[in-house]
Amino acid sequence: MLPTQYPLLLSEFMWLDSDTVAFRVGNTLADDDLGAERLWYSYTNTNHKLLGSNTLPMVSSANSSLAAIKSNLDALGAESYWHLRMSPSNTKVIYPKRVGEITTYWLLDTNTNASYDLRLSMLGALSNSSLPDVYWYPDEKTFILQTLPNSVSPILLGNISNTDLQLKLLAENPPWAEMGLGIIDFIVAGLSLDGRYLAVKPDPVTADGQYEAKLWIYDSQLAQLQKIDIYPMGNGKIRWISNSTFVALTLPGVIEYDVSTKKSSAILKSTETDRLAAEGRTQISPNGQYIIGMIMGNEGSPTGAGVLVCQLT
After folding, report:
1. If DSSP codes are grouped into helix, strand and coil, which group holds residue 204?
2. From the DSSP assignment, how many helices (H) and strands (E) are in the chain?
């Protein structure tokens, strides 16, 4: 358990890199509580260093890339920085921008200084909006952007060509387009490092009313879809640690699965993760080496609550 000053997790976790994670805690979940106190933290796993701050942690490697959009972010407030998503090379930034009364996500390509409106509006205030998930393909010209399940806010597939941006709905592409009503709702759960495998977590209730808790893996090279008996818990995402292997939090515990051999192995048993699995913000680090989440106190009280980190490898 991390020795934070306050026990209750108030934000989603944001990994600043594969080793350091940022989050916000407080002494109460109610924002209108006159006695509410808030504090930001960053935690580095390798040296177990926990740093507290009254201001939101910044992605230090992204500072130079943010110069062109800093005034816009500052106008929206500190929470806008929590919605930033950088490409692996830090040359492309997805960020929130307000035009008139509407706040949408934009993309800045620092190689060309071109900006694009991704036409994905935020639902509600910035502080209450779901954080975006961005999956970059290796060339960093193609990306997937999602904020909510597809039925609530359609998941986008973007492609940058020279100074032009093409946007499509992910559901309009294979294999989802051919499935029609065969898939009611889904979220993207992860993209393999080489971009070959796309993992999707569908709504377990199928179009015909059946219950099917499976993870779908689409192989773009072979144009094949496989359904495996793994259903990610926590925040619902998996972490790819190689071109064919991912790590996932499941009901039996944390497992490692190889899509090429179709074999899985247990990393951490459910007896060590069951307190985390029910909390929707629980997630695995980008390198698959750590899992972090919040545990609730007795009967939901702050007593005994806190942020817990477990090492997986």
Report:
1. coil
2. 3, 24
CA nearest neighbour of 137 among 115, 99, 172, 170: 170
Task: Tell me if 256 sits within 8 A of 280, measured CB to CB.
Answer: no
Q: Which of 52, 107, 37 is nearest to 302 (CA)?
A: 37
Q: Which candidate, 75, 71, 69, places its Cα nearest to that of 109?
A: 69
What SS3 class is residue 270?
Answer: helix
Which residue reads 């950088």 in tokens?
86
To the nearest whole number, what is the mean pLDDT of the chain? 85
Rank 119-123, 275-279, 302-306 by mean pLDDT and report only the highest: 119-123
Among 119-123, 167-171, 186-190, 197-201, whose mean pLDDT is lowest? 119-123
Q: Other C-beta atoms within 10 Å of 162: how many?
A: 8
| Domain that includes residue 132, residue range | 58-170
- Whether the Cβ atoms of residue 6 and residue 26 lie closer than 8 Å to each other: yes
Q: What tokens appear for 86 in the block? A: 């950088």
118: in domain: yes
What is the DSSP-derived secondary structure letter of residue 19? Answer: S
Place of tokens 């695995």: 284
Considering the domain boundaries, does residue 234 fall inside one?
no
Distance CA 106, CA 265 (A): 40
Residue 38: name the closest of 65, 11, 78, 69 by CA.
Answer: 11
- How many domains does the structure of the chain reveal? 1
Residues 30-64 pLDDT 10s: 655 556 777 889 999 999 999 988 777 764 444 56
**Residues in the chain, how many?**
313
Banded pLDDT at 286 (limits 50, 70, 90)? very high
What residues does 42 pair with on adjacent strands?
22, 51
Q: Is residue 98 part of a domain?
A: yes
Q: Looking at the domain assignment, is residue 160 inside a domain?
A: yes
**Strands 38-44 and 142-146: what pairing?**
unpaired
- Cα–Cα distances in Å, from 58 out to 14, 15, 23, 33, 84? 10, 11, 11, 27, 10
Alpha helices, H only, the chain: 70-76, 176-179, 274-277
